[in-house]
Amino acid sequence: MGEMIQARGLVKRYGEVEALSGLDLTVPQGTVLGLLGPNGAGKTTAVRILTTLLKPDDGEAEVAGVDVIADPNGVRRRIGLSGQYAAVDEYLTGFENLQMVGRLYGMSAKRAGARAKELLERFGLTDAADRPSKTYSGGMRRRLDLAGALVAEPPVLVLDEPTTGLDPRSRQQMWDVIRDLVGSGATLLLTTQYLEEADLLADNIIVIDQGRAIAEGTADELKSQTGGERIELVVADGARTDDAARLLAEIAAGDVIRRDRGLSAAASGDGAGQLRALLDRLAEADIALLDIGLRRPTLDDVFLELTGHVAEADDTQTDDATEEVSR
Fold it and tell me: What processes does the entry annotate via GO biological process terms (predicted)?
């Protein structure tokens, strides 16, 4: 399996702002790499470099075996890009938008039309094919934009926060579309600030913060960095919280975290066995519970552990700010 995207030591500065600080990444053929980070982490800057829209100040990168600096046109012939905002002409119909993209790639009118119809059907847009895209919902526009990125059947697809701003239903629809692409063997670079999205779609994840990769691995590997499973419970009677915390501390590993009547602690070893033992001890002590369970850490937990802040938080070094500086 070859490496379809490689980047080594990418650096990009905007005045005194360093948007990328030596970023390395690799995407093997037929896999999905999730580039995970908050607004301003440098995700979009990395995408712009890999898609030839920006030149790095240092470092090197190849896409589908082509150097992004030495042969940008060669890279463009091998990629499809769907950005944060749907790049569709709102006065053209869905069919006309896709046909236009095909013609720009040098397809004949017949071939471009056939490809447009094929993609409209694939993305569930056939019924809206002859409507101006300005009448489309946000989710439909994003699907049309993604279809446009696939017109030339590129070997590499770059999706820059493809579900930003979508409602939950539209986001789920986009996830279904992306899963289909992955199932067909596409190579994807997916940037996102949605932890659930990276968890569901990516084979491998790089967590990026302030322009640097701070962790890499599968979702399970990253989750294991937070100490594995956690035992969580809520005590019915607040006066018994101290007693419950003492029993939890005797069984669990590490410190007990308290939030009002809620308690949690990392499990060690057999989490299910520890949970059963704790239930027995709580029953013997006549401590009633409102809730109890064994929970695996989420990628939210991972990000907070690695960076000290949540993934949705804005950073002063936002991509919007760096774009403004670059103008």
Answer: daunorubicin transport; doxorubicin transport; response to antibiotic
